[in-house]
Amino acid sequence: MVIVGAGLSGLTAGLRLAQKGNQVTILEAGDQAGGLAAGFKNEGWQWSLENFYHHLFTTDTEAQQLIKELGLEKKLFFKKPKSSIYFNKQITRFDSPLSLLRFPFLIIEAKIRTALVTVYLKLTNDWQGLEKIKASEWLPKYYGKQAYAVLWQPLLKSKFGEEAEKISMAWFWARIKKRSMALGYLAGGFTVLTEKLLLEVKKLEGRVVYNTPVSDFKELQLKYPGAVFLFTTPFSITQKITGLKLADLKMIGAVNLILELSEQFFADKTYWLNINEKDYPFVAVVEHTNFVDKKHYGGKHILYVGGYYPQNHRYFTMSKEEILKEWRPYLHNINFKFQILNFKLARALYAQPIVGLNHHKFIPEITTKLPGVYVANMEMVYPWDRGTNYAIELGERAAKIIAS
User: Is the pLDDT of residue 318 over 90?
Assistant: First the structure.
């Protein structure tokens, strides 16, 4: 059994297939496992930190089950950090019914409507009906024009850019449906989960080979004769490697600056700040150490600043210094006084699927037309949005299909 990609889907599938007696080899193009959940550890830190902000929701049952099975349940903790919106040059809390009631930029009728429609989206399971409608049409119709203009339209445009008008309402529904006020994190970082999965795979005589990009399927078959293959790479990459016609689905990339600060950035202890102002180059500012104690990072304050961009965006070729220089004035609008001690840049070309109308019709099955070739990637977790929980669930599902 050969798995291409050592993200959480590949590692989970590898573990399950190894447990069934398969000889598993996982090939990873990079120098570490974990995919978008991969992390790093600076000198003086007790815990590692993800390249891209991560947390779990209380509804992420598949991830919690795996964490428990691996004996890591004592490392998982949940808190209720503060989430806010940056709008009209103000930071305003927006993470509960009470904060909605106090939100100063909506009239009372819009607040009531927002609450009722959000409850409806929490309760309904009709994603098939919602995927037939564009979010840009459904949201102003039911939330109302004011709530759409203040709350949702800025985020859609910031995240998807020119693709914003094409996004299915099912994508938005998934974001509301699974979100919880309490957020979960692992003591030591999500690297703890990745390392435990790697350890368990190796205990079962599985192998993980790093710095091994795959580009030629025939060469791969010659190297591993008679093997079954699972590709966890994006469809566009898998198609190039195998020649399979899978799906012409678009993805956008993510760019993230991780700033190590001497002082707290959000004095009001905001953890997550959505940027709802126009023309900002990033969509979220996340102060990780307003969620996780700074003592685990040498007493430094950790700030993520990130956004989503087309794969041909100039940010994917600019240096971290150039990006910081461009973003710094916008950060100064939020907090005019902060001192950066150290900073790091993380980029991923394949970070967010573009979820259009009737999206499920374009997603292929895990089993492909090529005998012994299977696919399982981020684009296949639909109707849910990409995330750690769904990467694990997809790995479980792929392993069951392959084993059967």
Answer: yes
Map out the domains of the chain as residue ranges.
2-77+187-247+362-403, 96-180
> Per-residue pLDDT averaged across 232-244, rounded?
95
Q: What is the pLDDT of residue 247?
A: 87
| pLDDT per position as a tens digit, 150-180 | 999 999 999 999 999 999 999 999 999 999 9
Mean pLDDT value across residues 254-260: 98
Q: Is the pTM of this model over 0.90?
A: yes
Tell me the three-class secondary structure of the chain, residue by residue.
CEEECCCHHHHHHHHHHHHCCCCCEEECCCCCCCHHHCEECCCCCCCCEECCCCCEECCCHHHHHHHHHCCCHHHEEEECCEEEEEECCEEEECCCHHHHHHCCCCCHHHHHHHHHHHHHHHHCCCHHHHCCCEHHHHHHHHHCHHHHHHHHHHHHHHHHHHHHHHCEHHHHHHHHHHCCCCEEEECCCCHHHHHHHHHHHHHCCCEEECCCCCCCHHHHHHHCCCCCEEECCCHHHHHHHHCCCCCCCCEEEEEEEEEEECCCCCCCCEEEEEECCCCCCCCEEEEHHHCCCHHHHCCCEEEEEEEEECCCCHHHCCCHHHHHHHHHHHHHHHCCCCCEEEEEEEEEEEEEECCCCCHHHHCCCCECCCCCEEECCHHHCCCCCCCHHHHHHHHHHHHHHHHC
Overall fold of domain 2-77+187-247+362-403: FAD/NAD(P)-binding domain (3.50.50)
